[in-house]
Amino acid sequence: MCVDYRDLNCASPKDNFPLPHIDVLVDNTAQHTFFSFMDGFSRYNQILMALEDQEKTTFITLWGTFCYKVMSFRLKNAGATYQRAIVALFHDMMHKEIEVYVDNMIAKSKTAEQHIDDLLRKYKLRLNPAKCTFGVKAGKLLGSVVNEKEKVKAIKEMPIPPTDSKIRGFLGRQAFEKIKEYLENPPILVPAIPKRPLILYLTILEESMGYMLGQHDDTGKNERVIYYLSKKFTDCEKRYPALERICCALVWAAKRLKQYMLSHTVWLVAKTDHIKYIFEKPALTG
What we know:
- The protein is about 30% helix and about 20% strand.
- It has about 290 residues and is of the alpha+beta class.
- It has a 4-stranded antiparallel β-sheet.
- The longest helix is centred in the last third of the chain and has 15 residues, at about 240-255.
- About 15% of the residues are buried.
């Protein structure tokens, strides 16, 4: 059943209840070992409509006039209402044992015993078993891979090239082994620590730009990686002068890393002092 709620949506005030930032949810899964990925079943239909609002969802069929007693799809504030209900339901577990984005939920634990205890809590929430996975060590959350250790299995089991010519193609056997070792043990991404400055490394090439967001550990001597970013310039951006490519890279980084920059001091590290150069460049006046 598909009902046109455009007029009702235009008359309904906007519910500004915020949805969580996807990157923050993925960051919060770091340093956990066991995961369960869950999907709500008929998520909006699990929320009852207020009695006085039911008649506003009225629709006409060949068999009579009906209205919804539960929240329907396509309503303007359905997503925000469901997110508010989920936050109220899991408020004592969110950002600790569970992360929620509308009907996508992930339970996370550091031990199998703790994971079982977290899953046994009863909230009478109906789930879609076809889209749920329980007690795994890796999976996808909103398009992002959580715990990528399983992805290097093929690299670890890759055989040594059988002929000298193929080995030379890998820069020799020793280099081949070093490459395997590096790919088997990539830098582990960690969540950002509040109230501690972040370090943004920026590299700008002719056709692309790359970033690494890091942070010092408790000793202040070592750096830990929080986020990697890269992007190819478009054909139009490739024609920008060097200074404009710098500005383009900084703007793109600020948009993608907004959730970090709003809550931390960020130090920019690059081969040249971009910000100083931009502000010290004499302005031309006509």
